[in-house]
Amino acid sequence: MRLLINKTIIHLSIIISLVLYLWECTSTKKEITTAQNQNVDFLIEQGELYWEQRSDSSSIIKADHFLSLANDRRPEDFELSVLYSRVMYFRALFIEKDITLRDSLFSRGANVAKHSVISHKEFQSIYETAQGDSSFRLLSALANTPRALVPGLFWWATNQVWYLNSKPAMERLNSREILEVIMHRIISLEPDYFYGGPYRFFGLFYTRIPGVELIQSKTYFEQALANHPEYMGNAVQMSEFYNQKAGNRDQFHTQLKFVISKNPTTDPEILPENLFYQDRARSLLEQESILFE
After folding, report:
1. pLDDT tens, 219-268?
2. Which residue of 60, 167, 260, 291 is surrounded by the most CB atoms within 10 Å?
3. How far lies 28's CA from each of 16, 17, 31, 34, in Å?
4. Looking at beta carbons, which pairs linking 259-264 to residues 24 or more positions away fall under 8 Å?
């Protein structure tokens, strides 16, 4: 009897020890998870803080650093991915001079935004019901993407078109269909997204695609300008791409001079972009004689 009681006590001790061990493990895992989440939240906060200070070129590099770390740890966060993609676009377009680094930033920006879309549960539910091979299903799903994913679509295509800008024409032609599907979907859902962004996109893109009538580029740029004259990127990109290719030197000069003369502070949300676009306008004017040789 005494032996049985001793064995029972031993078994109970083992069970209690095991329960306590498992509880400690679970508690430790929860603490680690909480700490990791808090760490990612801190990285995002720092990235957002530096992003708000993007008029300073060093701040945009710091924003890129913190958001890159956060994105690596939380790649499924749609809003984080969209912001990180936009940060890389901004850095590539305005800050970096090295062509290889710029292309790398545009490419990564496109891939991060692409992942944010195609891995999203709302997109996946559409893709899974689409018919055909994988390429057709992707295009079909993109053509039916919900409005909530417009930011991811926009920064995917926008980074991609700038990446392709310096590439051979065949690469741009190979990407034409998917980029057109993406941007036409945005136009159908939110045509004025990011200050006429889809119209500005096509204005640029159709100067870089062989066989497309140049008047199409002009029409899209004019639409973007008519809707959002406060965003200086519409005018600067129209001169940089359409007026230059059309040989409109007078319009090129006049439009860029007008951009430089404008007050960049009318919309605080895009003050940094407008300041950098004014710098871009000055740079283009300095190259005017070379661009129109």
Report:
1. 999 999 999 999 999 999 999 999 999 999 999 999 999 999 999 999 99
2. 60
3. 18, 16, 5, 10
4. 259/232, 259/235, 260/285, 262/232, 264/232
The DSSP code for 76 is: T
- Dihedral sign from CA coordinates of 183, 186, 191, 195: negative
The residue type found at 60 is: I
Coil, helix or strand for 107? helix
- Interval 67-114: pLDDT, tens: 999 999 999 999 999 999 999 999 999 999 999 999 999 999 999 999
Any alpha helices (H) in the chain, and if so which ranges? 2-52, 57-73, 78-90, 99-118, 121-129, 134-142, 150-164, 169-189, 193-205, 214-227, 232-237, 244-246, 249-261, 271-286, 288-291
Question: Per-residue pLDDT averaged across 62-66, rounded?
Answer: 98
SS (H, E, C) 151-209: HHHHHHHHHHHHHHCCCCHHHHHHHHHHHHHHHHHHHHHCCCHHHHHHHHHHHHHCCCC
168/164 Cα distance (integer angstroms): 8
CA angle 190, 191, 193 (to 5 degrees): 70
Q: Categorize the per-residue pLDDT at 13 as very low, low, confident or very high, splitting at 50, 70 and 90.
A: low
233-236 CB contacts, 8 Å cutoff, 24+ apart: 233/195, 233/200, 233/273, 233/277, 234/195, 234/196, 234/200, 235/259, 236/277, 236/280, 236/281, 236/284
- Taken in order of first residue, the domains within the chain and their CATH numbers are 191-293 (1.25.40.920)
